[in-house]
Queue: 3 jobs
Job 1
Amino acid sequence: MNRLQNKVAIITGASAGIGRATARLFAAEGAKLVVAARRQAELDSLVAEIEAAGGQAVALAGDVQSESFAKALVDLAISRFGKLDIAFNNAGTLGAMGPTDSIDADGWNQTLAINLTSAFLGAKYQIPAMGNGGSVIFTSTFVGYTGAFPGMAAYAASKAGLIGLTQALATEYGPKGVRVNAVLPGAVETEMYRAANDTTDKQAFINNLHALKRAGQPDELAKAVLFLASDDSSFVTGTASLVDGGLSAARA
């Protein structure tokens, strides 16, 4: 039996990378999906792909920084599919990069808004809709766990904040049957990875930091998210799950 049969899931940041790969995998495992991102065309192509394979999905484009958008995603899940079981709050950005004394308050605030506050807003509306328990998953990063590289203060702070949010929500809502976990990728070959590492030498340097000496693939991360979303992880909550190719171990 499919591991997410009859489950309803919201996935943000679904237009590309880890979010898109996870949406495909969730649909293949039987979930009905609400997929979200800023880019409507990419969402439409994802929905068409899922439906062509026999799955069910609906898209809503918008900005995860908006509280009204967070609420609208939950409302859409309920109106279209009747319930909500899973939320993968995956949308994120590298944000304001550079020496900390060169980052202005607007850059700092926007990075935290996209990476951290959006996750809080999502959970604020998602958790009450999970009447019979559910699974909430955040995308943090090894940077939020082992420490950042220079020039990543805003990104590191926002992703470390997600780990704290995960643990707080897990303890608060565990008695209601809601599990909350974070997945912590290393480098993954996505648009963000290629934009940040735009030469072969840069990619080789980053890849070599991993114990496995390569970057991950979006499908590999999707499988870890599937575990946290499914009943296979029924006794797992409050965790920061490293799926980083041994990068954190190699840097220890």
Job 2
Amino acid sequence: MHCHDLGRLLSCYGNPTVHTPRLDAFAADGIRFDGMFAAAPQCSPSRAALFTGRWPHANGVLGLTHHEFAWDLHPGERHLGGILREAGYRSVLLGVHHESRTLPDQEIAEQLGFDLVDKSEVLADPVADRGIAHLSALVAGEKPFFLELGFFEPHRIPGTRDPHGVQGFLGNHVEPDDSRGVAVPPYLLDTEAARTELAELQGAVRHMDAAAGRVLAHLDELGIAEDTLVIFTTDHGVALPRAKCSLYDPGLEVAFIARYPRRGWTGGRVHDELLSNTDFVPTLLELLQQPADEDLHGRSFLPLLDGGQPYTPHAEVYGEMTYHDYYDPRRCLRTRTHKLIANFSSAHAFMDPSQSWNRRCIPRVQIAGPKSSHAALELYDLREDPAELNDLAGDPEHAELLADLSRRLYAWLRRTEDPLLHGAITSPLHIKTAGLLGGAADD
């Protein structure tokens, strides 16, 4: 199960004002990972990395996959749904699909390798209903199954209650929730407008939690919870300024909870080792004793899940953004103590994911005036400055650290053959438009 734009906004991740009893109970009965980071801070690239085990700049999804954004997996990229179908699983995708080009369901199924794709409903309640129905049918079948279940909430969604110029989190079906108060994150100004928007976000999370809980309860009703591996995660951070669409921690941090009682993955264990969501596919393939392609970028963390096995943690994890609303290429390296961000364009200091003309949440860094562009490199000490508000890249005392992290980030770009090293990256729409103009000229 996965959802949009959640980050780690669950009570079990230390957010006491959020009401998420079902997923909290799931975490208490499973294994929670506190150091999991997305490959990218936006929907399609992160999901493509999650389900292929390869970085977005390698698998082809460097931006959004719907409408004229039109990014898609390269031919030959293998999605987890197809890998497991080849291994004998009944493979089904219901709800949100955003990791390859948005096409009719049957075409997506053929491209990715699913037996069935049904994205006709994406909101949490109808997706949960369909998931429950399909689980009953899948359990009655002869094959083991892989079910990918995607909830739209807590993504922003337009509704008739939105103030003029605002797109909030309520749509026409979610109620705001401040029953436990509202905690404004430290990278935003604490204003009444921010609290109103965060109450909406908390309501959307609560709504999604209830839907996920119904699916989890159905596993118990079917009597298969003991023998079923369940993963809950999200694509990237919350849809607030300086979170989603940025390489700061609030944009890349994600919830990741696993439960598989038959294997001993239960009991509420917590791990804080650095992990990337590119690690998911190789981990699952090792668990199922399936061969993994040599070009996977992730690394299995099965020893952590099993407990008591030798495991060498990542020294650092990486993140990237190339396109979202517009071209804004960035790459980052994060250790347990520091973050280096490399910016390859002179765009705004960070992309705003508010999807609104009138913003209700204001970043703290704007107090000194809006930044029209950003420096080539940014460096943050995550121990002293966890909100990443104090850029140390220009501080002579940190020059040696800056050089070391820069070398390591550049080595990753080289090792993974990042096309940014060879110049600007052309979007599908650019190619399409140039072709249309060229065709008209030929006529």
Job 3
Amino acid sequence: MASADRLFAEARRQMVLTQLLPNKVIDERLIAAMSATPREQFVPKSYRGVAYMDEDITVASGRALMEPLVLARLLQEADVAPSDVALVVGCGTGYDLAVLARLASTAIGLESDAALAAEATKLLAQLGLDNAPVIEGALADGLAKQGPYNVILLAGAVPEIPAQLKQQLAEGGRLVAVRRPKGAPIGQAVVVKRAGNLFAERVIFDAGTLPLPGFDRPAGFVF
């Protein structure tokens, strides 16, 4: 193993030991998935040295990877099974999708930015994750044709969770996201579970996750 590879492997180990385990992340499959996914490959070269810090990392204008602990706690709450079909809304360069692809049978990435979608497709192919296709489209619309989904992850904060995304959950499906109203200093991570036509929502923890684009309400008419 090259020197840089050893350094990044140690950084992943420290991420687990100092960020995940002390903060109630105990799912062994999830820890293994995050330990096996090279986060440094999904950020710009200038940020690779800080890829495992407990902060969001900018990957493009207005886009960022969620900090590892927020992602881990969201996915742990989603309780992903090996047979699940999952959707990542706003997959960016593909890190969250790569982790989820190691947990689910199929993980589909939805990305509105063509350049990010192309980068994610390239990186996932390099890792040999052939169960994680990336589709370009409007984030707030979801991907109804490929659904329903057992798990939906919103890879960034949104002011509210669109009803059309909830409707794409399968029976018993779980949607995990950070809800952060525009201008709010901090958001709340939530899990939404479907039972028939009912959607039960529970707040999990506070999070300062940066927003996803395309979820603002249209401006109302002014009389």
